[in-house]
Amino acid sequence: MAVKQTAGWEALGQFAPKFAELNDDVLFGQVWSRENLLSLRDRSLVTVVALMAQGLVDSSFQYHLTTAKQNGITRQEIAEILTHAAFYAGWPKAWAAFRMAKEVWAEDEGEDAKAQHQRDMVFPIGAPNDGFAQYFVGQSYLHPLSTSQVGVYNVTFEPGCRNNWHIHQATSGGGQILICVAGRGYYQEEGSPARELHPGDVVNIPVGVKHWHGAAPDSWFSHLAVEVPGVDCSNQWLEPVSQADYDKLI
Ligand code: MN
């Protein structure tokens, strides 16, 4: 999809129409728009570093920082990008760039970690998990991936969030499979040490086993929850995992 840019025409359409046309139609309309070769996010990264290397901290730099943010570069990432570039472009240039970047990303401090987690994962974080909030400590999110044949849900936990102790019940079949997709979390069965979970880990939870799952204290965490088909399936929700028990994990 072509990037629509009219700044050139608005600023220089009368004075330098060819330059305005090249700016709007070729630079933005064609080069920036070749997303099949390099994403807008990557193009923003290259552009910001190239401008910083020249010591440009004018309105065009501010425009490209704002665009970089719109294209998905987070506050933590821009800090890392400018730090890295400082060694090659020059320390004072990084100082100047940071002053402007701080303003552009100023209101972003809280949202950043969640946005970063979403970028680490192909499945949506989804909506706040209000329906089950009473069985969780902290904020969780739920996104249904499959609601027919086999139920598959992406469950996301903010740092420190975990569900209560619970038991998946069924008279035959049933149980739950967790497939970890992003971040770092824990799974614990009653009477056993907690197991640390990373993307790619799979947990088979048999029926009748008391357990909980959730995020590490300092990391977002997402797992797919696969509801294994069975007869008379239900969840038996029990007491919360106490802060003392949760703190022992670390
Ligand atoms: Mn479970």
Outline of the structure:
The protein has 250 residues and is α+β, with helices and mostly antiparallel strands.
* Head-to-tail CA distance between termini: 47 Å
Count of discrete structural domains? 2
What name is given to the CATH topology of the largest domain? Jelly Rolls
Biggest sheet strand order reads 1-3-4-13-8-11
Secondary structure elements and pairings:
Blueprint: H1 7-12, H2 17-31, H3 40-53, H4 59-70, H5 75-89, H6 91-104, H7 111-119, E1 127-128, E2 136-137, E3 140-146, E4 151-157, E5 162-163, E6 166-169, E7 172-173, E8 176-183, E9 185-189, E10 195-197, E11 202-205, E12 211-215, E13 221-227, E14 230-231, E15 234-237, H8 243-247
Helix pairs in contact: 3-4, 3-5, 4-6, 5-6
The structure holds manganese (II) ion.
The site of manganese (II) ion has 6 residues, from β6 and β12.
Characterization of the model:
It is elongated and about 80 Å long. The protein has 250 residues and is of the alpha+beta class. It is 36% helix and 26% strand. The strands form five sheets. Strands 1-3-4-13-8-11 form a six-stranded antiparallel sheet, with no helix packed on it. A three-stranded antiparallel sheet has the order 10-9-12, with no helix packed on it. The chain has a two-stranded antiparallel sheet with strand order 2-5. The chain contains eight helices and 15 strands. The mean pLDDT is 94. Helix 4 (59-70) packs across helix 6 (91-104). It has helices at residues 7-12, 17-31, 40-53, 59-70, 75-89, 91-104, 111-119, 243-247, and strands at 127-128, 136-137, 140-146, 151-157, 162-163, 166-169, 172-173, 176-183, 185-189, 195-197, 202-205, 211-215, 221-227, 230-231, 234-237. The protein folds into two domains: 7-111, Up-down Bundle (AhpD-like); 127-247, Jelly Rolls (Sandwich), CATH 2.60.120.10. Manganese (II) ion binds at residues 166, 168, 176, 205, 211, 213.
